[in-house]
Design brief:
Blueprint lengths: L1 H17 L7 E14 L10 E11 L4 E12 L2 E15 L4 E14 L2 E15 L4 E12 L5 E11 L4
Antiparallel strand pairs: 1-2, 1-8, 2-3, 3-4, 4-5, 5-6, 6-7, 7-8
Length: 164
Amino acid sequence: MTRFATLFAGLMLIVCAVSPVSADVGFQGIKVGGGFLWNDEVKGPLDATGGGLHVSVDFQLSGPISLAPFYEFSRRNSITSTLFGGEFHYNIPVSDKAKFYVGPGFGAAKAGGSTEFHFNGVGGFKFDLNDRLGLFVQGKYAWAADDLVNGIAAHGGITFSVMK
């Protein structure tokens, strides 16, 4: 877990170092929302299918690609399932205020005292209400080694931008 945290911190430092290159590259905003995780192939005692939280930060890289470090959790009974890591989004503009995004992600999954590496695929939609505030919805499928977390997550919420 410490190695992952070090790798994640290093990745964030690299992204922050690249941020001042141009107005189109760098910090874009924060997503905060709620949602749920539905585990379809998880070990019985670790089933954390239930409601939860999503928080992510968007960093625009070059072209239509962005990086979104994220933290998510869901809880059921006494079990909390946590996913954190980073996703690369390929952004597809629909209009000046709306865009779809799809892409792969990776990170760590934690449940029941165990931590495993995970991969995920994400797809979502973001709509800007004005220069600083917007809405988002997204879905993802996450797979972690050892069947720790294998399931579908759906989130929706608000986006905040401070750089426009």
